[in-house]
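ok, trying the design again with the full structure, not the truncated one.
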């Protein structure tokens, strides 16, 4: 067993169907602790979460908001002014609080991912991977994400039901492959021009020190204690965005009629993810027929022959180990 303690932090909402799977999977593959921030002020934290020795749960209450005000991230105007309207602001504040907790718990590495993501170690193990990072003298490492593909409209627990993923388009070799196959891809409504529906940047893990801070939701600001590495040859993040019509609808009903800029009015950061804006507008229409039609036509891969072709050409991968790990799990 590795002596290097690894933890992850996530901010979650509407995660009833997948929370147990998320927790079990990451503990099973080798993480030592999970910091869970329940973002809904009305959420009831499950008893099993409160009692689990490897979980630290935070309710969104006055105590948490008081703690946010003590962080360095709170001093950033775009974060402090958008706490109520921008989930990413709360994620950044929560990640900084998790770094504090991790330091006191003598945790060496902290990974920041969303509740609809899994860390996939590829051909190594979590213990071996982080030991290797230590041996290389790294302070922070970023992992590319693979985007989950919905093969059926109705999905309850995407961690157990989804196993098809698109390759990450930001890698040079992948980008070249996508360009070569553009004539085919243009014929597939379910693959947008950007190839991914949602983000294609990375998520990161960082060495925990008193001076480590979040840098947005994808990266960390690290002191000069080691090197920073971005890799495409090791572990990846499996991202399951809007996998299943119910998850799609719930996401955009929860987000509501947000604006066209990240972090609200006054921010210079325009939202450039067309699927995110379209999802807002489609679900906001409250037209059931429009919602169902849009989701089917833009997300659901229902042609097995097409799926096989995408896998054969290297544009998609079939990854089944998370499904296998979670096959018989009913609870943690």
């Amino acid at each position: 067993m590795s002596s290097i303690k690894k933890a992850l932090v996530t901010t979650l909402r509407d995660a009833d169907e997948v929370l147990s799977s998320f927790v079990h999977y990451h503990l099973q593959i080798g993480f030592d602790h999970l910091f869970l921030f329940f973002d809904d002020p009305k959420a009831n934290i499950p008893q099993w979460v409160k009692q689990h020795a490897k979980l630290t749960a935070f309710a969104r209450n006055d105590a948490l908001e008081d703690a946010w005000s003590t962080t360095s991230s709170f001093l950033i105007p775009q974060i402090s002014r958008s706490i109520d309207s921008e989930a990413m602001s709360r994620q950044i504040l929560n990640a900084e609080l998790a770094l504090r907790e991790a330091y006191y718990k003598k945790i060496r590495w902290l990974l920041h991912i969303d509740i609809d993501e899994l860390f996939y170690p590829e051909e190594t193990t979590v213990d071996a991977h982080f030991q290797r990072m230590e041996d290389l003298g790294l302070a922070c490492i970023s992992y590319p994400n693979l985007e989950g593909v919905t093969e059926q409209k109705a999905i309850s627990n995407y961690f157990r039901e989804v196993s098809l993923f698109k390759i990450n388009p930001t890698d040079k070799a992948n980008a070249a492959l996508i360009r070569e196959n553009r004539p085919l891809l243009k014929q597939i409504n379910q693959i947008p021009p950007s190839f991914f529906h949602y983000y294609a940047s990375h998520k990161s893990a960082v060495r925990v020190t008193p001076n480590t801070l979040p840098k947005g939701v994808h990266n960390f600001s690290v002191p000069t204690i080691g090197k920073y590495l971005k890799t495409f040859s090791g572990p990846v993040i499996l991202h399951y965005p809007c996998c299943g019509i119910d998850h799609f609808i719930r996401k955009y009903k929860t987000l509501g009629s947000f604006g066209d800029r990240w972090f609200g009015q006054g921010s210079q950061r325009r939202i450039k993810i067309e699927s995110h804006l379209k999802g807002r507008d489609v679900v906001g229409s409250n037209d059931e027929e429009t919602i169902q039609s849009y989701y089917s036509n833009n997300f659901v891969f229902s042609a097995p022959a097409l799926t096989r072709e995408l896998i054969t050409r290297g544009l998609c991968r079939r990854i089944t180990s998370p499904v296998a790990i979670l096959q018989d799990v009913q609870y943690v």
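Keeping the full-length input from now on. The two ends are 21 Å apart (CA to CA).
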